[in-house]
Amino acid sequence: MIKFFRKIRRNLLSEGKTRKYLKYAIGEIILVVIGILIALQINNWNENRKSSKIRNNYYEQVLQDLAKDTIYINRSIINIDSRISKYQNYLEKLPKAENINDVVPLIRALDLTFRYTNFNTNTIESLISTGDIKLMPDEIRNALLDLRTTQNEIIKITSGNYNVYLEDSQNAIGLGLANFTLNVNPKLLNQLIREQDIISAINITNGTFTLKNFTEKNLLKDMQNLLESTKELSELIREELKK
Known about the structure:
InterPro entries: DUF6090. With 243 residues, the chain is mainly alpha-helical. The chain has 8 helices and no strands.
């Protein structure tokens, strides 16, 4: 093909047809440019197709993570609400207690457990670490980053407060509160702990549960807001997958 075009140019020059040669040369240049543009367009199309495939795979993974988080958040909301209700019931009955023996059953009815918060962030972290987050449309990218920020803030705050709660709870247990809550024989109980110690343990418990309740009330609001954000992001991604 190259030899064919070269022969045409040579013939035009040898025949002195300079004007035709120039027209032909310009036409040949235009054809080359068009060919390059077509090649670039095909290359861009292939790259866009690859990017779209990668992006859709991420969409599916994010949706799976969000589905798991939705289940986790809903369960957490139920559990947190239950613990808050138990503590509220404790506060209502505490003023009616006349002695230590009246307080201990109330403490026993509380939910003494603590649960650290955790979310499914593998896909979001992968998007950020690989730089593939740039493949996402602005609205979804911003929603993903906002979601990750909110999750990290919840984890940081609750973990810090729960660590304090755990430490103080251990102090209360060390003073003998566990013996009361385990229904130890009264005669043995008198030998195991002093009344002053159990009073201190109860006071520590009241303080720790005040912090725990404060944390969980805020966590309940955060989880409810996070649930809405999770649903909204899921809808955005599903709409993108339909395109």
